[in-house]
Write a structure and sequence with these properties.
With 404 residues, this protein is an all-alpha fold. The protein contains 14 helices and no strands. Helix 4 (88-111) packs antiparallel against helix 5 (118-134) and helix 4 packs parallel to helix 14 (350-372).
């Protein structure tokens, strides 16, 4: 087995690990509101979301193509060969280091219960590793701006506006309906809209990892853009990535589900349904257009909009503000980790450097997981009352909500 093949295999394993973290990190985007309003029991919600994420991974590859072409410049679009001066090992190490940056940021923000963007953690990691290895010439700045940065800036506002209008209309139309009857009816509607968000999430987010694996195969020389355009992605990539994100979703990112469902707005069923419908419409539209949109940005914007659109609803702007800070930090923070990872691995070089970086990832990931168990959030306390303005579960609530 050659050194290049070993690095490729480590890259694929790390990509699948990123996809898994994407699943549990972003479960809340689809199911937080349904869990918070009681429309679905927590474990039923994550199981349903996992199944629909799996199905969604097979529906489209437009976003995967965006990932292979819109962030890094490693392949000559005319000839299909690697860019001049770039060898296969270096190209794969750039992608590998970028994945490590994305995973570590995902795990850190999950620990803090902060709904940051898995997508932008990935793109930030790739950006940092690409800059470290190739300089500014290795980045597709126009593609990054048009397909990643502009949608990231606009999507929360668009989602919030759509959700706010939807909530206002719902309460306007149903103002003569008894509250108990309205709640019951909209809870059934939430099951449908939450399912649609899960399907949309699988359609968008699983593809990002598919694109990264495809990028690794392109760097290795096993695949080319022309082959992808002619025949689509290899089926095994789709199956692997859809399965990984579904498994991560099933385990449930309870810390982030709690922040989205309880920390931003005290939701009722009409608000939850409006937020989910807004999220699903925007995510599906962006996936069709090949935009690598953050489902976290969309879902958070929708939830805030559902609070703004209902007179008298309380939006916790302190929590929302910390989320925005996290969003702004995601791209540069993941880029720094990606760049440092590349330099560390490149310093050792070859297979030894790749195994060193992989070992650091495993140790750091294990440390974050152990820290999370000191203040555990799971299906038993995810709906415990929110106290204060923080994003973590208050210590006194760590054992509360056992009947949730």
């Amino acid at each position: 087995m050659t050194g290049e093949l070993v690095i490729l295999l480590l890259l694929i394993v790390t990509a699948v690990a990123f996809d898994f973290t994407n699943g549990f990190h972003d479960t809340g985007n689809a199911m937080a509101t349904s869990i918070a309003t009681g429309a679905l029991k927590p474990k039923v919600a994550v199981a349903l979301s996992a199944i629909l994420n799996l199905v969604g991974g097979f529906l489209s590859v437009e976003v995967a193509v965006t990932v292979t072409t819109s962030v890094l410049k490693i392949q000559d679009t005319d000839t299909g060969a690697l860019m001049s001066g770039l060898d296969a090992e270096t190209a794969m190490f750039i992608i590998f280091a970028g994945l490590v940056g994305g995973i570590l940021w995902n795990l850190l923000t999950w620990l803090l219960g902060l709904p940051s963007s898995s997508s932008h953690a990935l793109f930030g990691g790739l950006l940092g590793a690409g800059l470290a290895a190739l300089g500014t010439s290795g980045i597709n700045w126009s593609g990054l701006t048009a397909k990643v940065i502009i949608p990231a800036l606009l999507s929360p506002f668009i989602a919030g506006l759509v959700a706010a209008i939807g909530v206002w209309l719902v309460f306007r139309v149903t103002r003569g309906v008894r509250e108990a009857r309205r709640e019951r009816g909209f809870r059934y509607g939430q099951i449908a809209t939450a399912s649609l968000v899960s399907l949309a999430h699988g359609t968008g987010d699983a593809q990002k990892t598919m694109g990264v694996i495809a990028l690794g195969l392109i760097a290795h020389g096993t695949l080319s853009d022309q082959q992808i355009e002619a025949n689509g992605l290899p089926v095994w990539i789709i199956v692997l990535c859809a399965g990984a994100i579904a498994l991560g979703t099933y385990l449930g990112g309870w810390r982030i589900i709690r922040t989205l469902g309880k920390g931003l707005v005290e939701l009722d069923s009409p608000q939850g349904m409006a937020a989910e419908a807004s999220s699903a419409a925007i995510i599906l539209t962006s996936s069709h257009l090949g935009m690598a949109l953050s489902t976290t940005h969309v879902a958070t914007g929708s939830i805030i909009g559902s609070g703004v659109g209902r007179p008298g609803a309380k939006v916790r702007w302190g929590v929302a503000g910390r989320m925005v800070v996290g969003w702004l930090m995601t791209l540069p923070a993941a880029a720094i980790v990606g760049a440092v990872t590349y330099f560390v691995g490149h310093l050792v070089g070859g297979v030894g450097g790749a195994f060193l970086v992989f070992g650091i990832l495993v140790v750091a990931g294990g440390a974050i997981y152990r820290r999370s168990q000191q203040q555990k959030v799971d299906h038993t306390n995810v709906n415990a009352e929110w106290e204060g303005e923080g994003t973590e579960l208050a210590p006194e609530l760590a054992t509360a909500g056992k009947d949730a």
